[in-house]
Design a protein that fits this description.
121 residues; alpha+beta
């Protein structure tokens, strides 16, 4: 019985990560007429015009274009409000532990599901 209780407590300490999960994958669409360079913490990728690619990143994504008239963009991560909510409501029983666990596992923030890069000359 103690083992079941300990397992349940361990699982509930990361309510946000288990209940909502994290989204570290972003589909980047290239709606410009140039090849773009996408840099993330998983590497650097080239995306051809009118194509898309799934990019894995826990931090920000940087998009660059060789055309000087086109903008360079940082795609920022957002607060994972669902995970924070689950950390607070059932997690209040465990104090700061649920938020700490989700912060350590990098699940308090998420990347957008999709981003469309456009440059019209």
């Amino acid at each position: 019985m103690k083992k079941i209780l300990l397992c349940a407590m361990f699982l509930l300490t990361s309510c946000g990560a288990i209940g909502i999960g994290s989204n570290h994958r972003t589909t980047v669409y290239n709606n410009s007429s140039d090849v773009i360079s996408v840099t993330s913490d998983s590497g650097m990728y080239k995306i051809k015009p009118d194509e898309s690619m799934q990019i894995y990143s826990k931090e920000q994504i940087f998009i660059a274009n060789k055309n000087s008239k086109c903008p360079q963009v940082n795609v920022e991560r957002q607060l994972n409000s669902g995970a924070v909510f689950l950390d607070i409501i059932p997690g209040v029983l465990f104090g700061i532990v649920p938020i700490f666990v989700d912060a350590v596992t990098n699940n308090l923030y998420k990347m957008p599901e999709a981003y469309s890069y456009s440059c019209v000359e």
